[in-house]
Write a structure and sequence with these properties.
Blueprint: E1 4-8, H1 17-26, E2 28-33, H2 41-55, E3 61-63, E4 65-67, E5 70-71, H3 84-91, H4 95-112, E6 117-118, H5 143-159, E7 163-169, E8 185-186, H6 190-195, H7 197-203, E9 209-212, E10 216-217, H8 229-238, E11 244-246, H9 259-269, E12 274-276, H10 281-291, H11 296-307, H12 317-328
Parallel strand pairs: 1-2, 1-12, 2-3, 3-6, 6-7, 7-9, 8-10, 9-11
Antiparallel strand pairs: 4-5
Length: 333
């Protein structure tokens, strides 16, 4: 059975009857939660179960739980984390193992409430011009560090039964604007991009899923990567990524046009999934109509991603937490 080429959010902490009916008809591949959907562990577990019940299958449920400023599940019910760039600096030589431990602990918290996909690792390389909305979400300032931290983060998620979604492909670190509000253009030459930003994603091109960047790379195209067939060819052929490609959130103002137009352009360019996070019913209806069904190739990539979703490996979580805290010189908070 082919699913809709979409991942949707929902409006609040409880699934509404009209949302359930829409999801049953639209059959999105999966769902994504935000802070507005999160109150208590019991409530989140009920919501994720209700979302799956709406489509009648074990659909993936994603979240942005990077740690630091971008984490949707927060204290007092969930652990708080340092921003990744700060945590890596604190851990020094033990940083890669610390990031594995951190990801494994985050995965355990997510799986406990029915979330089995996390939009991480963030493989963007921090530069002197990286916008503050992104900079301390990065793992390092050079490809080798970002690759090592990214691999550890991905492995920790997979060990905990959570699908990692690497972002923001093919690299957001050179963007000086916030794509929530503006469309950045990166004018760096193609060879430099291949050796730096693209290299981080090439090294992890075996991961099951990735999210695009709403950025123009002028060395390749005048369209933002999410809506650029030329950039999707770079992703598939130069970076060598064979997994599922999700657009970044189509509500971000970096993209022009209506929500339906944005979804249609992203799918036409080569994104497998149009991601709409806001939970607005009229917008979701427009996105579902424009995105249509997964292509045969997209469905195969989705099935391969879901096959990577394993039961968590046994772990002594309190021991892992103590090991993590020792590496960063104390608890995150």
């Amino acid at each position: 059975m082919t699913h809709g080429a979409t991942v949707f959010g929902c409006a609040g902490p409880v699934l509404l009857p009209e949302e359930k009916a829409f999801y049953r008809a639209a059959d999105p591949l999966g769902f994504i939660l935000f802070a507005r959907n999160v109150e208590t562990p019991e409530q989140v577990a009920r919501l994720t179960a209700d979302l799956r019940d709406a489509v009648g299958r074990d659909a993936p449920v994603f979240v942005d739980q990077e740690g630091g400023r971008v984490q949707r599940l927060r204290a007092p019910h969930w652990l708080e984390w340092l921003p990744p760039l700060d945590a890596v600096a604190r851990a020094g030589a033990g940083a890669a193992h610390m990031m594995w431990l951190r990801a494994r602990l985050i995965a355990a918290e997510l799986r406990a409430v029915g979330i089995d996909g996390n939009c991480a690792p963030c493989l963007d390389i921090a530069t002197d011009v990286t916008h503050p909305f992104l900079r301390n979400r990065c793992y390092g300032t050079d490809p080798a560090t970002v690759i090592a931290m990214g691999r550890a983060t991905a492995d920790g998620h997979l060990a905990g039964g959570v699908l990692p979604v690497m972002k923001h492909m093919p690299g957001h670190g050179r963007a000086s604007a916030d794509t929530h509000h503006d469309l950045p253009t990166v004018a760096t030459d193609a060879d430099t991009l291949r050796q730096t930003d693209f290299a981080a994603f090439r090294a992890l091109n075996d991961l099951p899923a990735a999210m695009t960047a709403h950025i123009v790379f002028s060395a390749f195209d005048s369209e933002p990567a999410t809506c650029s067939a030329a950039m999707m060819r770079v992703v598939r052929e130069e970076i060598g990524f064979g997994g599922l490609i999700l657009s970044d959130d189509l509500n971000m103002q970096a993209l022009p046009g209506t929500l339906g137009e944005r979804a249609a352009r992203a799918v036409a360019a080569g994104c497998d999934i149009a991601l709409h996070c806001k939970g607005d019913m009229a917008e979701m209806q427009a996105v579902a109509a424009a995105a249509g069904q997964l292509t045969r190739e997209g469905q195969a990539r989705a099935e391969a991603m879901l096959a990577a979703r394993k039961a968590p490996e046994p772990a002594d979580l309190s021991a892992l937490r103590a090991e993590h805290d020792a590496l960063i010189g104390g608890a995150d908070g």
